[in-house]
Amino acid sequence: MTMQRIKPHLPWITLLVLTAVVGVVDPNFLRPANLLSLAGDIVPLFIMALGLTFAIYIGGIDLSVQSMANMITVIASIYLASLGAWVAVLCIAAGFGLGMLSGFLTTRLFVPSFISTLAVGGVCFSVAQWLSGNRALNMDAEQRNATFGWMIGHTGIVPNELFLAAALLALCLFIERRTVLGRVLKAVGAGEPAAKASGINVGRYKMLAFAISGALAAIAGLLFSVKLSGGAPTIANGFLLPAIVAVLVGGTPLTGGVGGVLNTLIGTLIVAVIRASMLYLGIEATQQQMLFGLVLIAAIALTIDRSKLRTVK
Amino acid sequence: MKLTRENVIRWAPALVLLGLVVLFAAINPAFLSQRNLARIALASTPAMMVALGVTFIIVMGSIDLSMEGVVSLCAVLFCLLFLRLGGSLGAGAWLAIPAILLCGAFFGWLTGMVHVRLQIPSFMASLAMGFVGTGAAVLVTGGDIVRIEDDVFRALLTWRILGFPLMVYIAAALVLLAWFIQNHTTLGRNFYAVGGGEELAHASGVNVRRVRLAGFALAGVFYAIAAIFQVARLGQAESVTGANLMFVAITSVVVGGVALWGGIGGVLNAVVGVLIVNVIGNGMVVIGLPNYLQDGLLGVLVIIAVVLSTDRRLVSFAK
């Protein structure tokens, strides 16, 4: 077995080993109820990472996902009262539209995606501050329960968030495996000039990839604000790093082309286990950012396809 | 002078700055008052240092997104070391200054190593190292605020010459130093060689890896200076001392006319860019606009600047 052949299997092996190690240290960790509640807690992050996968899959990046989620928590908190369930449509449309804008800037105006999404993130932050007046907002608890209570309840011992996550995963998997869009995104990730040369309208599909990323970041923000019953312009800060880590640890490299949404599922679970294990092993939440930064570097170094980078800038 | 694309790009930032100053002064003459100008200069100082550092890296065609973490970490370490060494600039605590500059250089070099040795694109290598820096700052402080109340050190802020704080003059001197490094040292020329075409630079005998490492280390020194200025300005350090500097600094450098593709623009562009960004921030408050519009406006500006500086004949796609 060469490294080349083991590589695609590394993510789930890592997940199993980590889970086993934590399980040995604390057998309580492996109780189904504990695992399910852990999984339920990570769902907003998973949804965000799911969207981010599309941006990374084509060799780009979306640094606006965190600001997007921040803005959506504010929008959801404000307009729940007047729009009811329709606020979900507003949130997703806003995410889709702004993602589309990032995609437009990247594909049509040749602004590298890390700058275009950073800029769109700045716009999101301004909108969030403007709408909220820079305060933390609360949702009306009764109305939240009536409209979105189904998102955060339990069915048996299974948190309802997991059903939402499963539905979105299935949708993304369908897009990736069974649609023209999915095939084109793979072609773009594998080699953009070749995809273009074979007559594909690459720009339009790349824009859609960024739009999906924005829309899913919006759903993540919506779910997060429903969970917390409120919103604020910086409430989701701290999501960006673990979301990028989840995608890359799962095995979708920064250079795109391989991996996909199932990998992100595994990557998110790895993040969840690392987080939980650090608490079990007595490492506090404040110390985790440094560790995740190092994990990120290791994950990129292991997965990146250097043959695609003529010069590394 | 002919009205070519190159000339427009070269002079646009300076004209934009001039236009903004005239606009704000026309709406509210208090904008040009000596006190307000001092306020703008003071607010610009830390961002200016960060912008100078990242300019060298952007000129090389790379990018550095680690400044928030590096500035936070350096600020926190500086305060702790300063207090450990006696808490007064006269009593040996001055040693904290060279120590923290070395620390910044080391962290920058480390980012460079991650980028060059592990062959990771610089935007991601530096983003990850920025997270590591912020995480380390949290770790060192445990989330607390560290204060410095030394009168001699705070003279950077409190000692005013012609109305401007001392640190503004030091910052001006450092701008000259950066300009000197860029135009009159081998290293400075090599940044342009690498930015203009890495393979060509390599073929003509430039050790590209070493130049990149030196660039990141040099940027780290400037981030450390920014950290010291932040501490002098605020009198304290915590793990969010560097917050928002990344967006402001990158925007400034790009808006000032340094091309993201490398090889074009330099220190003077960064200076104009920082002034544009801070004049906008200050001017919006002076004419009574809410300052939360600032990030959105900067986002729009940076897009316009990148689009204007992109030669569409040479670029076939962007990642």
UniProtKB/TrEMBL annotation, chain A:
A Pfam family reported for this protein in Swiss-Prot or TrEMBL: BPD_transp_2
Highest rank taxon of the organism: Bacteria
Keywords from the UniProt entry: Cell inner membrane, Cell membrane, Membrane, Sugar transport, Transmembrane, Transmembrane helix, Transport
Annotated GO MF terms: transmembrane transporter activity
Any one GO CC term of the record: plasma membrane
Compartments, as annotated in UniProt: Cell membrane
InterPro entries per the UniProt record, alphabetical: ABC_transp_permease
Record's bilayer topology term: Multi-pass membrane protein
Transmembrane regions: 12-30, 42-60, 72-97, 109-131, 151-175, 207-226, 232-249, 261-283, 289-305
Job of this protein: Part of the binding-protein-dependent transport system for D-xylose. Probably responsible for the translocation of the substrate across the membrane.
Protein name: Xylose transport system permease protein XylH
Source organism phylogeny: Bacteria, Pseudomonadati, Pseudomonadota, Alphaproteobacteria, Rhodobacterales
TrEMBL record, chain B:
GO cellular component, one term: plasma membrane
Any GO molecular function: transmembrane transporter activity
Compartments (UniProt record): Cell membrane
Keywords, sorted A to Z: Cell inner membrane, Cell membrane, Membrane, Transmembrane, Transmembrane helix, Transport
Keyword Cell membrane part of the UniProt annotation: yes
UniProt superkingdom: Bacteria
Transmembrane intervals: 12-31, 37-58, 65-85, 91-110, 122-141, 161-181, 213-232, 244-264, 271-290, 296-315
Location (main, coarse): membrane
CDD domains per UniProt: TM_PBP1_transp_AraH_like (cd06579)
Membrane topology, from the record: Multi-pass membrane protein
KW Membrane (keyword) present: yes
Quaternary data: The complex is composed of two ATP-binding proteins (LsrA), two transmembrane proteins (LsrC and LsrD) and a solute-binding protein (LsrB).
Record function comment: Part of the ABC transporter complex LsrABCD involved in autoinducer 2 (AI-2) import. Probably responsible for the translocation of the substrate across the membrane.
Protein name: Autoinducer 2 import system permease protein LsrD
Taxonomic lineage: Bacteria, Pseudomonadati, Pseudomonadota, Alphaproteobacteria, Rhodobacterales
